[in-house]
Fold this sequence. Notes:
Strand content: 15-25%
Structural class: alpha/beta
Helix content: 25-40%
Number of helices: 12
Strand order of the largest sheet: 1-2-3-4-6-8-10-11-12-13-14-15-16
Shape: elongated
Number of strands: 16
Largest sheet: 13 strands, parallel
Radius of gyration: 28 Å
Order of helices and strands: HHHHEHHEHEEEEEEEEHEEHHEEHEHE
Amino acid sequence: MKTSAPMVCGQGPRTDRLVKKSFKRTRSKDIQLHHLPTDVLRGILSRLTMKEAVRMSILSRKWSRLWKCYPKLVFTRAMMRGSNATTGPAKHSRTRFIRGINSIRRQLKSSNLNKFVVKFALRKRHAPHIDRWISFCAASRAKHVVLDLCPGPKASTDTDDKYSFPLHLLSASGGDLRCLLPKCVVLERLSLTQCRLDELSIGQELGRLHCLQVKFCILQKLDIRAPNLTLFVFAGRMIPILLGEPVKISEATVDLITSSDCFSYVFTDLVDALSHVPSLSISFRIETKVINFVKNQTRLTNLRRLVLKIDIVGSPEVTGGILRLAYLLELAPALEELVLHMCCFDSAINGEPSEDAYRPHPHHHLKTIKMTGFYGLLGQVELALYLFGNATSLERMIIDPVVRNNWFIPPMGGAKHNIDRGTSIALNKLSRQEFRKVLDILY
């Protein structure tokens, strides 16, 4: 007894035979779009926007079957603007937006969803709908999932109304994700913004995950074993971060949101988690009065480019807190480019910098250094002198008094006094004969 293969999303032997017969009976000049093979039509549909694909689905039964396999679902306010889904009061617009997503989701039968994106202001009371969307992503083997439930400025402090991510939907045990469902192993990109996660701890290795972004989430721990991770983005509080030795990682960005000194955390916990990264950017805060720290045994042996965006708080006459940054030459032996974007709220005071306050450590690879927000604090001057004296291959050092840390930039009018003073101190303390070939002071 002969059995035929099941038809999936418009495919099957019967459909292919009909297409071939149609081509034989039709002259080339009479060939129409729907005469093309199913695979070709599916490729055409995947290149259309979702709104265009919905319109195509009403042309014929064939296009309706193809629409059920549409691989990229992107729901944003701009995408829904053509309908009435985002007009009127906020409560009604959210309801219409959710109904629109649910209506489209019920029409689809895709087993290999490529992308599922929701960018709309939703809250905790909408959790049942969002949970169903996440279950749909897991069942559809989604590769790229984005839930941005607070698009726009991320300054809200209303944590009680934030959506709690349903980790139990991804865990066979319903606990802290110690046993992840096999369906989630196919994830290639994971982006979470402003979700309440408590603890994101996944016991099973995510071998296909190459992009991980977790921003502004209520999170106590991040533990994901992703050996093939190439891009990591994190914004939040100081928490344990474990990524499982991502040896292929190429870029990482970390923004720490805290009012305390982060130096020890950055150069211990983060260094351990991102020891293989060649390009790293970190935003954090340091205090001038905190001078002690424990050196890390781990080295950033692959690091070539480092960007630090630093808020400096504390007494301007104390230098040890800032001078701790000299440890970078020891921590990253192959570093070639160092960018220090600094922002301090105190003006410089008179004083003579010490040139032997930190133990010398010659560095033979550092070629470019850029220091912005140089207000002329004693700690800044001593750090610049230390870098000059130990970076033996230095080709260029840029001193810029203007704050450019992209986190908090003071108005130019109010900062003019500090900028002028920083420029004057840089010219007086750093513009020496032995430095002039590589020093560039912007003013």
